Amino acid sequence: MPKCFILSPGNDTPSRATDLRPRRLPRYSQEAATQFFAESSTISPLDDIAASSTSGALRPAILGPLGPAQLTCLRSWRKLGLDPLFIHLTQGSGTPGWPGVPGDYLPLSREQLNLPVGRAQFCAFLSARGCTGLTCLGEADARLLRAMQSVLPCDLWLPSQESHDFLDSKHRQLELAQVCGFAVLPTWRADHHLLPMIPEDVFPLVARPDGSGTAQPMFKIRIVRNARELSDWLKGFHKLHQPVLLQPLIHGPNLVIHAATDVTGTPFALQAFLVRRKFEGVTLTIEPAPLDESLRNACIAFCRKAGIHGCLHFELVHDPRDTIPWFLEVNGRLGGTTGKVYALGFDEPRLLLSAHNLLSIPPTTSTILNGNTVCNRLALGKLLYKMARRDPRLLDDLSGMPRRWYDLLAGFFLWRDEIVHFNDLRTTVWYLRDWFSELLQRKDA
Question: Is the bond into 204 cis (omega within 30 degrees of 0)?
Fold first, then answer.
């Protein structure tokens, strides 16, 4: 493969980032917030769970649609004896049958949250219930919360603005990854005016935008088969604020490394997981994997240099031709595999509280369920249905039948699931009701 095109050490790598800006509370919440912080000030940052939960001071909250990761946060925090808050960004009036305390659930539409009245309702909800901290998953939701940070009556459990700006630039991530010891794929940058000379034997390439909002029309990922297709595709952009990034397409399993870091950016929990199967961008199966010392050291160095505080995960891809795990990107928040790794014993929502010195740091390696596989049974069922109908878009999957059929069908019944927890059927039923409701709404539309 050719030598990497763009990677060179830059001067814009941020130092360790800690957000110490003072918070301004809105008038309607000042009294409640003062009382809340007065009550919670006697709690030692590393006291055990019982002390935190019995005092009522620790009230975590998550904002977003009802997805597996949001459900996992609520389950994890309730298992700790806490009373979490859920701000449900929904298209309608919310999902009936909320399985927690009725007053701890607030359904809001995104349109409402973008209006002053909706934001006031949102902040009043957090203040009245003594919310300790708030987090989310989606990039758009994170931008919205950062814009509101000065009026939020609680802490915001997201990477600082400085860390976020750094992580938003994929080429800066690649530069730092190479400095820290990760293997980085050959990478080119291309736009309307800059079309690099790329050998034909390197295609197909994977194209990604270099940051959110840098390309119009927007895209997340694009497979480019040859130079002609690349040139034609680039001409279709109205705006390109940054060149798109191009890397060779690797057909191999993904290695996802979940981490939690303290305020200095130093990881206190690192665990690798192998993703063997994906479908329509959704991780179908995941299982624990060993993490060798070189990758561990690279992860620690990256976190420290980027100053990431909280929960994050690295995404790499294994090339079956040389077994090298190639660095792809880092996501600085809870993510789409949070629910799956929770089912395997890696409790990210719990670690998020530890990262912010609200709970003691728990052991992680001893709780990992090695030898187990977790799936998303809803997505797996969708794949099996399409395979049964011999969907032409699934040529790779169809070519492996009946062996592929047998593996997936057996796994459907034998693998652990990130949604269905028999020790928590109430939240399971609540989630499935919401899932089927949205499915019917899409069909009616």
Answer: yes
Which parts of the chain sit beneath pLDDT 50? 1-55, 398-401
pLDDT given at position 31: 39
Say which residues have a Cβ less than 8 Å from residue 235's Cβ, sequence separation at least 6.
192
Q: What is the 3-state secondary structure (H, E, C) of the chain?
A: CCCCCCCCCCCCCCCCCCCCCCCCCCHHHHHHHHHHHHHHCCCCCCCCHHHHHHHCCCCEEEEECCCHHHHHHHHHHHHCCCCCEEEEECCCCCCCCCCCCHHHEEEECHHHHCCHHHHHHHHHHHHHCCCCEEEECCHHHHHHHHHCHHHCCCEECCCCHHHHHHHHCHHHHHHHHHHHCCEECCCEEECCCCCCCCCHHHCCEEEECCCCCCEECCCCCEEECCHHHHHHHHHCCCEECCCEEEEECCCCCEEEEEEEECCCCCEEEEEEEEEEEEECCEEEEEEEECCCHHHHHHHHHHHHHHCCCEEEEEEEEECCCCCCEEEEEEECCCCCCHHHHHHCCCCHHHHHHHHCCCCCCCCCHHHCCCCCCEECHHHHHHHHHHHHCCCHHHHHHHHCCCHHHHHHHHHHHHCEECCCCHHHHHHHHHHHHHHHHHHHHHHHC
* Rounded Cα distance, 293 and 133, in Å: 34
Q: What is the separation, in whole angstroms, between the first and last Cα of the chain?
A: 47
The pLDDT value given to residue 434: 81
Tokens, residue 439: 């499915």
Scan for tokens 């880092």, then name that residue.
330
Check residue 194 and give its pLDDT: 79
In whole angstroms, give the CA distance from residue 127 to residue 121: 10
